[in-house]
Write a structure and sequence with these properties.
about 20% strand; membrane; about 290 residues; Glutaredoxin; transmembrane; protein disulfide isomerase activity; Thioredoxin-like_sf; single chain; 5-stranded mixed beta sheet; alpha/beta
């Protein structure tokens, strides 16, 4: 006999069918869209003041029913409420009309080689993404001309691989967001660390703005995130999770990407509550 739906499945089914087949991204629908727990979002960016762009909704809507529950179709007005999310996609209003598919689990973004707004093309593209046949389109800023002249090397998406996985270097990278207060608080310590090691040929201290650059195999969930890439083959990566101060950073580097074991001291003070990142210094969410 067929198995009935459990409570969670029934709740999700009701949630899906409470949504419009195609949602418009507005202040009023924001919570519904992000609370839908639908794993992929297909976005049509357009300028609603253009009748020609508004007409593109027909093909978009025609493709939507095929993927109900798997892909949420959303129209984003680049001249309205949707303007606020354009930087997340590395876009400007002039890029409309255009399509993007987002995998919500890791914020990976997928784009057609050339936008085609017909329902057949949209369905074909989405199915190819779901089948793993399309690579994500990764954001990358342009590297500054002086990226490697200062003690802290400035990495971007397109230069990250060649620096972080250089087999002759031990590379310590800070992934940050410009608006993150915890990143700002540790900036001086990171600069001091880089100054300390600027003459060491085998050690590179670097930073990458993770709001403007994306990497294929590394997903950043909070800021700052610190990763150490040791020299040698194998593309190894170690996440640093200890105190964010120069002396502890230095011990970590001198010990080859680990912190030396220290005897535990008996303390009369109650233990401090751990921060969400487990780092003791706090972190900013995405």
């Amino acid at each position: 006999p067929a198995r009935g739906l459990d409570a969670a499945e029934l709740t999700q089914l009701l949630r899906i069918h409470s949504l419009e087949l195609v949602m418009e991204f507005t202040k009023e629908t924001f919570d519904q869209i992000f609370g839908a727990k639908i794993p992929h979002h297909m976005l049509l960016f357009l300028n609603k003041s253009s009748s020609a762009q508004l007409a593109l909704q027909d093909g978009f809507r025609a493709a939507a029913d095929t993927f109900r529950g798997k892909v949420l179709f959303v129209v984003v007005d680049v001249a309205g409420f949707g303007a606020a999310v354009l930087s997340f996609f590395g876009m400007t209003p002039a890029d409309a009309p255009t399509l993007r598919l987002v995998k919500m689990e890791d914020n990976r973004k997928y784009q057609m080689d050339q936008d085609d707004f017909s329902d057949v093309a949209i369905r074909t593209f989405i199915q190819a993404v779901l089948d793993g046949k399309v690579k994500p389109r990764l954001l990358s800023a342009e590297p500054p001309e002086d990226w490697d002249t200062r003690p802290v090397k400035v990495l971007v998406g397109k230069t990250f691989e060649q620096v972080a996985f250089d087999e002759t270097k031990n590379v310590f990278v800070k992934f940050y967001a410009p608006w993150c207060s915890h990143c700002q608080e540790m900036a001086a310590a990171w600069e001091e660390l880089a100054e300390r090691y600027k003459d060491r040929e085998d050690i590179v201290i670097a930073e990458l703005d993770a709001t403007a650059n994306e990497l294929e195999n590394i997903t950043i969930h909070g800021f700052p995130t610190l990763h150490y890439f040791p020299a040698g083959p194998g593309r190894k990566m170690v996440e640093y999770k200890s105190t964010r101060d120069v002396e502890t950073f230095s011990k970590f580097l001198e010990n080859g990407g680990t912190l030396p074991e220290e005897p535990s001291a008996v303390s009369e003070d109650p233990p401090r509550a751990r921060d969400p990142a487990g780092q003791g210094d706090g972190s900013c969410g995405m």
